[in-house]
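so my prof wants the structure for this chain in the tokens format not the other one, which i didnt know existed until like an hour ago. anyway here's the sequence
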Amino acid sequence: MQNIVIFDMDGTLIDSKKDITISVNHVREVHYSLEPLSEEFIVEAINKEVRNLPELFYGTQEYKKKDMLVFEAHYEEQCVKSPYLYAGIQEILDALKNANVQLSVATNAPTKFAKRMLSSLNVAHYFDVIIGADAVSHSKPSPEMLYRILEHYDYDKERDRALMVGDNSKDILSAQNANIDSLFATWGFSPETDFANRVDTPQEILSIVL
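here's what i got, hopefully its the right format
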């Protein structure tokens, strides 16, 4: 039997809102001469189940290539300047790994940024698979990323156990769509939820998984 835990990254493992905000505001200033947005506004926008981020961030109906290129070039350097692990994350990763739990990351961020950020925080080695939205046709709430991870483990529902941990309804819906269990983490970007299976501290994950 395999015990598999798949984590979301931003708002679940790490707090990255400062750097995301700085890079979004860089594009706003360079291309649109717009005033900066607050971290709170940007986090709320990112976590909405239905939203048009280019409209909210840049006043455009769809992402323009010039905006994407400038954001990615800026964020590649910015993304490792301020992120930090939430309290208790390092300890639970150690405990889960020591208990032979298989760990992976499924994030809607680009894979290269996820790997760069997790490496900079010295936790990338815990994860067998780190996969971002650029590596699949559809991001969460699609189950595609989760399917890719489960395939890596040769997952068998009758034999193995798999669990998704995330701070967003899209994480929970992706788990439902993949027919695996999920936990909603309230310490990150979304402190409020209607989902029944919630955890308020990382330590609660251990009692559930182990």
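also thought this was worth mentioning. The mean pLDDT is 96.
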